[in-house]
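Worked example 2:
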Amino acid sequence: MFDIQEELKKVPPKPGVYLMHDDTDAIIYVGKAVSLRSRVRQYFRPSHNEGVKKDRMVERIARFEYIVTDSELEALILECNLIKEHRPKYNTMLRDDKTYPYIRVTLGEEFPRVLFSRQMKKDKSRYFGPYTSAGAVKDTIDLLQKLFCLRSCSRTLPRDIGKERPCLNYHIKQCLGPCQGYVTREAYREQVDGAIAFLNGNYEPVLKELEEKMNRCSEAMEFEKAIEYRELIKSVTQVAQKQKMTNSDGEDKDIIALACDDRDGVVQVFFVRDGRLIGRDHFHVSIAEGDTRSQILEAFVKQFYAGTPFIPREIMLQEELAEEEVISQWLSAKRGQRVYLRVPKKGAKEKLVELAEKNAQLVLSQDKEKIKREEGRTIGALKEIAQLLGLPGISRVEAFDISNLNGFETVGSMVVYEKGKPRRSDYRKFRLRTVAGPDDYASMYEVLTRRFSHGLREQQELQEKELAAEYGSFTRFPDLIMMDGGKGQVNVALRVLSELHLNIPVCGMVKDDNHRTRGLYYENRELPMEKSSEAFRLITRIQDEAHRFAIEYHRSIRGKEQVHSVLEDIPGVGPARRKALMRAFPSIDAIREATVEQLMELPSMNEGAARAVYSFFHKEQS
């Protein structure tokens, strides 16, 4: 039994982070303190007023824990990481989890490329952004391809010069052909410098050159080429017009303002890079009664800059932050240079903050109903499903489906939904190793065994390396497994979980005779559902997505070859040996049952290859 009063006596007077747990052991609040002893004790003093939100939180505290750090700055960094990881109920939370795209120029390569990137790494590349629109970034890269004819391939140059034929981009005159040695490094670098100048906003030389080419083609009555140049001029002009708002200081800054009511808040961020407004974005934050504007902005700044790789030199805010000094130190350490937090009081900078606030207010008023509808489709639908199944809560759902090509090539799909939305980075495909023919139950058994065995191994490796904050692709387990099917598929899943000693709820997504979603099968009974409910619609979307992902995988396989043999996945077995195996054995099952000695009897098969074939079919599933 956790005795709060006794444990309070043990809290040290040192800086650190404290975590409050409820009676289900869920983390409901994370905070930091210069002195853990003073701060944590404050919560449990009858005379101390923490506000409505904190008072409600204190009523639910069953136990607390704390982590001691060497400084307040270390405590701030740890607090940000823990809030992002656990998303406690009583912390002011940033709802959006966005990553912004960059344009990356790979200057570390001898023949650089211009690429789309979601990360800004410490390498020799030069990055432009972040931008708020991935579509705009891709359009800009396509435009640069047409203007400067830089390569987009992944060949290693100059090592691979002349080894393969030039790609289609060279033939349509969107690449200078460095892979064939058709351009010198110096000439190619001039084009790269032109692309960098363009990305820096120097559009005039490009426009002037395009206009000259268009006029020459028109005079020579080469009207098709003239039209091409005219369209390029339009594209460049459109990109240039996006940079209307400029600032004479030419610095990087973010302008942050908040609009909120009693329950909802919107933070608007203007991104100014090299003195130009390159974009804006808004973020919805969940707030509670008693939160001040300063507290909401402070929580936003911590969470937003904990997750974005680019830190500007200056951040302009509406309100002073209570922890301004330590936040500035943290951001400066991340940037590698001093970062200033400022609240402008007059002039153009104050007008920019006011403009950001007006935009935030506009989004708040326009999107309030939209937000509620979206939450109903996602988080609300998950709450309905959890209530229907009698579960305490659902955040992550994994759905599985099996598909085969005339019974010969069987594949499995795994799709992941978090908070009611697809998390495509966690989707996985499985090509079956041990199942021949159209056996959906055996196929599902293999897929689930591989998925969860892999996850258990990753968890063990993380524990051994003490890397609990780092996740492998399979480490996170779902709160609910959804099977594409009824009783049979559910029982297969339960069997796998039992063998691996895992306790995860499993339900089946049942379809009617017309192959339409009908409802859920859970704990040996089919649960009735209203077809007009958001829960039913979410289940239908998940089932359709699992099926689509499996079919798409099949199409990619069929695109490569009409019929693919599982033998092609065996290392060291090339076309000649595959043909010999198929001639000597009547089926894949016969090859699977063959001994190493029987496999070695084939003329083209040595001992190493025979053992590779045998090991492939008999090794432990993973």
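Confidence is low (pLDDT under 50) at residues 243-248, 466-471, 560-564. The two ends are 41 Å apart (CA to CA).
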